[in-house]
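User: I need a structural model of Peptidase M19 from Duganella callida for a docking pre-check later this week. Nothing fancy, just the predicted structure tokens so I can convert them on my end. Input:
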Amino acid sequence: MINWDAHACLPQHPLADFTPVRRLHAAGVNYVSLNVGADMNPVSQVMSVIAGYRATIAADPERYVLVSSVDDIILAAAEGRMAVGFDLEGALPLMEQPDMVDLYAQLGVRQIHFAYNRNNRVAGGCHDEPQGLTPLGQRMVEAVNRAGMLMDCSHTGRLCSLDIMNASSQPVIFSHANPYTLVQHGRNVTDEQIRACAATGGVVCVSGLSFFLGAERPDADDVARHVAYIADLVGVKHAGIGLDICFQQPDLDDTPPGAFDPTYWWPASAGYIADKPPSFTPPDVWRELPAALRRVGMNETDAAMVLGRNMMRVAQQVWSAPAQLAQAA
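Assistant: Understood. Predicted structure tokens for Peptidase M19:
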């Protein structure tokens, strides 16, 4: 069985310690998508992070593999290695150039969403005025589909996410988002968004962050409750896990250079409190999730789908798309 964590964060620094990745692997995770930058990170920082992460992975080939296919993940799991991919949280690192999508794909970025909480010239964020997908955004969706990259709608506004799901020729995912019906936070997604995601063939992966789970110290049962809601609404094949654990390393300063204002990206009006950061499920929650999913009524097959098989199905389709297009040509 493959366990798939659709989103996690190390410090945005080229010297980030990969010990948390090893902790996830020890807890049973076979593949993790590591964030390499967001809209608040300039391209210089994003590229530095990608270079640093790639160097760390390349320096320890017996422990890590940077993947380009689902087959890479299956082989890595059989060999006892941790499979890693990258993701981008926002379109600003694309510099308004659709051709940048393919460049990032070649560097190991396997999924992207277009807006980190705030609006930009591509897409609308979930903590800003309602904005749909722009004409440039339409071209970006097409570029993501061509590059064989997972189109993600986490952090994206409701209206824009619906536009993206309508525009994409491939399944769309939420790599770390929870049902708004259970917890009324602006980062969570409505039933309409969940149904639209499922209609593309995609997956909604539940985050383990306290604000979005509605639990001060979230655990496996909190995650399972949100998974069960998605499964009941649209079917178990559209539910997954993306715990969004942000691993802090105090010795590394990964603050974006320049005039960075955290209250802009995480506004108090949306419920963020500067001196009260969120808490996260620990990596060991992966050991507890199978039993927690059983407690909400899932059998072993259902749990395997949630823990990895659903995201494998979508990635198999999306990541292989460029090769299929080349063969058709």
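Before docking, keep this in mind: The radius of gyration is 18 Å.
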